[in-house]
Amino acid sequence: IKVNILNGDVMGVKTNPTSKKGEAQDVAVDSSGNIYVVGSEIKSDGTEKTVFVRKFNSGLTLAWNKFWYIP
Question: CA–CA separation, 16 vs 19, rounded Å?
Answer without folding.
Answer: 8
